[in-house]
Amino acid sequence: MNFWYSKSWIAYLLLPFSCLFWLVSSCRRWLFQSGISKSYKAPVPVVIVGNLSVGGNGKTPVVIWLVKALQAEGLKVGVISRGYGSQTEVYPLLVTSETDPVKGGDEPVLIAKRTEVPVCISPNRQQAIELLLSKFPCDVIVSDDGLQHYKLQRDFEIVVMDAVRGLGNGFLLPAGPLRELSSRLDSVDLIIANGQANQYSQVIMNLVPQYAINLLTNEKRSLTEFKSGSAFAGIGNPQRFFLMLQNLGIQLNNTYEFQDHQKFSAELFEKFVKNEPHFMTEKDAVKCLPFAQENWWYVPVEAEIKGKSAVEFIKKITQKVNDGR
């Protein structure tokens, strides 16, 4: 929604509905915090990786970074997710790198593939944690999304935001992109800005691409070897992916935007030019393997998150785990 990033007349027109949204969400949060509504406390520390605004902010790379950082401290990590877009008949569901992304969801399958830690999906986070802990000896649980899921108690919270978009026009849904007011940032443990610093950020995340991988052959090529091609993305902010490729010197002849968590099929790509490279995100690639073409390449990225605040945050989690042993 373009009007979410400016204070246009449409946004002001929708403000009464935003007030209603605030009233309902605030009452719901208060009910859980006061103990009137029952919430679940996991037997191990829980870290939420979420955001205040809708749209692509870069949560999945942060989850992968966090898991690897905690593993480097010697901790056994499990991941839970709502599994948005999954079409399984059974919840909770343990997800591995081999799980069909239609059943397991694109992001959970990608997380399992990149981290090799146990991942469990369910709209009921308590059930996901209980199944995970019954099968694996986890020291800490990382929740992909769920900042506003107050039915699950948490020990630490990370907010990820797009540095350029920030919090948009500052209005709540539907007048703006926010699920909660900006004052919510005062109570979280770490604020990560994707791309550059902004007025809210404590640390900056840079998504670093190094090579492209062919979907059919698994051949790796340096991105500097490509001069041109086309790109498509079914993520929250496709333009970020396209701009990344262009900044690497790749001329994009065509770009194709799909909705986040798009369900891909071979028919969607029939119009694509066959004699040029087609680039996609790793998140999209896990869904395109069954009908991949020889000129299709995905571009994995590594989240580079540095700074004193990030180091101290990892230490706090490690200390919490050690204190509970």
From TrEMBL:
EC identifiers of the protein: 2.7.1.130
Signal sequence range: none
Binding residues annotated for ATP, in chain numbering: S53, V54, G55, G56, N57, G58, K59, T60
Domain of life of the organism encoding this protein: Bacteria
Catalytic activity: a lipid A disaccharide + ATP = a lipid IVA + ADP + H(+)
GO biological process: lipid A biosynthetic process; lipopolysaccharide core region biosynthetic process
Enzyme class: transferase
Pfam families: LpxK
Pathway: Glycolipid biosynthesis; lipid IV(A) biosynthesis; lipid IV(A) from (3R)-3-hydroxytetradecanoyl-[acyl-carrier-protein] and UDP-N-acetyl-alpha-D-glucosamine: step 6/6
GO molecular function list: ATP binding; lipid-A 4'-kinase activity
Keywords of the record: ATP-binding, Kinase, Lipid A biosynthesis, Lipid biosynthesis, Lipid metabolism, Nucleotide-binding, Transferase
A single Gene Ontology CC term: plasma membrane
InterPro entries (UniProt xref): LpxK, P-loop_NTPase
Record-stated family: Belongs to the LpxK family.
PANTHER family tied to this protein: TETRAACYLDISACCHARIDE 4'-KINASE, TETRAACYLDISACCHARIDE 4'-KINASE, MITOCHONDRIAL-RELATED
UniProt function note: Transfers the gamma-phosphate of ATP to the 4'-position of a tetraacyldisaccharide 1-phosphate intermediate (termed DS-1-P) to form tetraacyldisaccharide 1,4'-bis-phosphate (lipid IVA).
Protein name: Tetraacyldisaccharide 4'-kinase
Species in which this protein is naturally found: Pasteurella bettyae CCUG 2042
